[in-house]
Amino acid sequence: MLLDQIIDAGIVGCGGAGFPAAAKYRTKAEYFIINAAECEPLLKTDHYVMNHFAEECVEAIAAVGKMLEAEHIIIATKEYYLKEIAALEQAIETLQVPVSIFKMENFYPAGDEQIMVYEVTGRTVPPSGLPIEVGCVISNISTMLNIYKAQQGTKVTHKLLTITGAVKEPKILEVPIGTSFEECLNLAGGSTIDDFMFINGGPMMGRVGTKDDFFKQVVTKTTSGIIITEKRDFLYELFEKDMQQVITKARSSCIQCRLCTELCPRYQIGHPIHPHRVMRHLAITDVPEDISDDPIWQEALLCCSCGICEVIACPMGLMPRQVNNYVKARLAEKGIRYEKKDQPLTPSLMRDYQKVPPKNILLKDGLNQYVNLKVEECVQFEPNKVTIPLRMHIGAPSQAAVSEGDNVEVGTLIGKLPENALGANIHASIAGVVREVTPEMITIERRIG
């Protein structure tokens, strides 16, 4: 029953990747772990959810934990989130459910699911593996709020997100999926600077774009935040630099210091990933012709793209993450996957001394000026038009279930989960008339009067 409600509501993970939630829950697990770490600096959406919807979230957590037959149901959050922890503890006490709280240190990427599994259980997820291989299922705290709403018959039609940075009034927004970024910026009072850039998501794993790009963006099920900031060459380079320049600089400047490896979170929990080796391999290889089924190239497939190697580790300003992503793309083109090996996984003895504080990331990114902004007020908004993408989750895009001219209500199914495919249903987020249907998106205009 609960699984059917989750599928019908079109719930995908709110942590960023957008993995269809129901696909995770077709199993049994020893641990059901809730990611409430709000991993990326500056984002405050999960804080808001914990503070204002703790009881709803805990009720859903207990229900999913029961469905998974989990022996341990744990909310993992940061130990300094005192207000949020108090709200969760009160909800657990009120509902009298077998849910506990695990308090983590403040480091990045505490919210990476494999890092969280290690923190909570001491177990290392096998390289290129999934948490269920060590008895764990992980979901985001905001996903739990959507599951609670699904139990009440509500589909995923709206999104909570943070808008912050160089805006007049940083806020939490609750808007229909498909709302334009431009309208979100207006709700925050507009930008404090004329020529800005933006980050769709968090400073480390979000997507950077120009002001021109900004006005083409819409809110999706995975939009966790919008950060407006001054134009910064460093941020552009982290995500958008020409790949040939990245490769040329890596070949000429890598000093093989190993810092990118030593600070890699996946290496620290025992995975056989060594970014410095990939960088060295780059210097002696014809690119892309010789990127093939090679053990060192395969190590790049273990990269979680957290960005620590680029933002914090490399003293030469090189970009191991971008190199890894490039290698991963070339291997994918050739259908090459990581070859799992039966080998011991030994965590780094230095791990506890090498965790990266989020403040160091903000200092390097030039975003430290925004760290103390108050983002507490939530504003609800209903636009007159939404443009809803049919691909906003991992898996196959949804298939249009409406035609131009159709009348829809909030919650009407407009994009169907493809049969026998990984994906999610998509629903109308406003009541109105379908004005355009393409293989990529559906546009709905609100009925006036």
Question: Could you characterize what this model shows?
Answer:
InterPro entries: 4Fe4S_Fe-S-bd (IPR017896), 4Fe4S_Fe_S_CS (IPR017900), Ion_transpt_RnfC/RsxC (IPR010208), Nuo51_FMN-bd (IPR011538), Nuo51_FMN-bd_sf (IPR037225), PduS (IPR017054), RnfC_N (IPR026902), Soluble_ligand-bd (IPR019554). With 449 residues, the chain is α/β, with parallel strands linked by helices. It has four domains: 2-151, Rossmann fold, CATH 3.40.50; 158-232 and 366-383, Ubiquitin-like (UB roll), CATH 3.10.20.600; 247-356, no CATH class; 384-449, OB fold (Dihydrolipoamide Acetyltransferase, E2P) (Beta Barrel), CATH 2.40.50. It is 33% helix and 18% strand. The strands form four sheets. Strands 8-7-9-5-6-10 form a six-stranded mixed β-sheet, with helices on both faces. A four-stranded parallel β-sheet has the order 3-2-1-4, with helices on both faces.
Radius of gyration: 22 Å
Placed side by side, the strands forming the largest sheet appear as 8-7-9-5-6-10
Fraction of residues in helix: 25-40%
Outline the low-pLDDT stretches: none
Biggest beta sheet attributes: 6 strands, mixed
Instruction: Tell me the fraction of residues in β-strands, as a range.
Output: 15-25%
The N- and C-terminal alpha carbons lie at a distance of 38 Å
Here the CATH topology of the largest domain equals: Rossmann fold
Task: Quote the average pLDDT.
Answer: 93
The CATH architecture assignment of the largest domain turns out to be: 3-Layer(aba) Sandwich
- Helix/strand/pairing category: alpha/beta
Please give the domain count: 4
Number of helices: 18
Shape: globular
CATH domain class of the largest domain? Alpha Beta
By DSSP, the count of extended strands is 17
The CATH superfamily name of the largest domain is NADH-ubiquinone oxidoreductase 51kDa subunit
Keywords: 4Fe-4S, Electron transport, Iron, Iron-sulfur, Metal-binding, Repeat, Transport
Pfam families: Complex1_51K, Fer4_17, RnfC_N, SLBB
Domain 4Fe-4S ferredoxin-type: 245-274, 293-324
Protein name: 4Fe-4S dicluster domain-containing protein
